[in-house]
């Protein structure tokens, strides 16, 4: 999620998301995105393979994942 917030409704229950979150939805799941009022920017990737976080370091603040808190 680049900007905004909302909820993804699935048969497993609602999943809240906010700016900076990654939402991973397994195959064969029919999600419904319910966005909160205001500006929202989503970036979606669909793949048949496995997604992995990069193993290299040095990406700085442009890294694709948030550091653990």
Strand and helix layout:
Layout: E1 6-10, E2 13-17, E3 32-35
Condensed summary:
The protein has strands at residues 6-10, 13-17, 32-35. It has 69 residues and is an all-beta fold. It has a 3-stranded antiparallel β-sheet with strand order 2-1-3, with no helix packed on it.
How would you characterize this protein structure?
With 69 residues, the protein is mainly beta. Helices cover 0% and strands 20% of the residues. It contains no helices and three strands. It has strands at residues 6-10, 13-17, 32-35. Strands 2-1-3 form a three-stranded antiparallel β-sheet, with no helix packed on it. A hairpin with a 2-residue loop joins β1 and β2 (13-17). The relative contact order is 0.26. The model has no long low-confidence stretch (mean pLDDT 79).
Total beta strand runs: 3
* Strand and helix order: EEE
- Which runs of at least 5 residues are low in confidence (pLDDT < 50)? none
Instruction: Please give the count of helices.
Output: 0
Mean pLDDT: 79
Q: What is the radius of gyration computed over CA atoms, rounded to a whole number of angstroms?
A: 14 Å
Oligomeric nature of the chains: single chain
Helix/strand/pairing category = mainly beta
Q: Order of strands across the widest beta sheet?
A: 2-1-3
Termini separation: 18 Å
Global shape: flat
Share of residues in strands: 15-25%
* Fraction of helical residues: under 10%
What can be said about the biggest beta sheet?
3 strands, antiparallel
